[in-house]
Amino acid sequence: MRNLPSYPALIAVLLTTTLLAFVASILIGPTELGFRDLVTAIFGESPSMTTMIIGEIRLPRAILGLLIGSTLGLTGASLQGYLRNPLAEPGVIGVSTAAALGAVLAIYTGLSSSVPLALPVMAIGGSLIAVLILRALAGSGSILTLILAGVAISSLGGALTSLVLNLSPNPFASLEIIFWLLGSITDRSMDHVWLAAPFIISGWVLLVLSARALDILSLGEETAISLGINMERTQLFIIFGTAISVGAATAVSGVIGFVGLVVPHILRPWVNYSPSRLLLASALGGATLLLSADVLVRLITPGTELKLGVVTAFFGAPFFLHLILKTKATFNT
Q: Which CATH architecture has domain 7-332?
């Protein structure tokens, strides 16, 4: 058995990589900047073009990359621990699809043009409606019931999104919807940060409060109940925590997949398969991955940036297939 670093050492490494990716996200772009420019922008007394680029363009983008990546990693680890399903991620309970549907409706109706805040508000509303429907369908039933209800909501949300695209009379609106569904944090401002951050952090709190329950739940649902774990409250915290944080993240970035699936899988052996320890590690790992992917899209095609969701899909889809084959081989042995 290989020697693994201690948990504090792992967190220190992840914090360092996250910080480096955050700084790189601020410095790398069409306009080349150095670390001295960053220091000048932070502590400089008089405004300059560099200060405007960093403060109004690069910094909001980096903060959103940090928040959204952390959210996807944290929710992926929480759902995999709660559902005890290595293939679980935020889309499994329909939250991402419902949030995307809310944002698509804002674009389709033109509200996103007349009222800029309509796009994130309707996306968050879509995720919350999905949670209420999920609670009504699954109630306090078993985890299997919750998964089936999530699949139903996700399928319905995807069908309704396709219907909106099909009925859209404006080809430019359809194109905008398609580009938004690909996922990106380009051209975001501090307004998006202030709108999304309170919801995202609120969702984080609910998920962190479920850490102890996830550890005990790894022994089995019946064992967890016998040890005094309130399964209904745990379900409530995890579902609402995921809905609020992922809904807010999807509201400002569009659909970005596979981060919540890949990161917990990579880091799980490094935390000795502890669900509670995996939460913080996955949050930092998700932030590092998303910030790095966002830097990568600027370097690959500087003129016309690739959409962030496309890059994560190229990375995540082969990994997903690998997990399926690995799971299949395990069951066959």
A: Orthogonal Bundle (1.10)
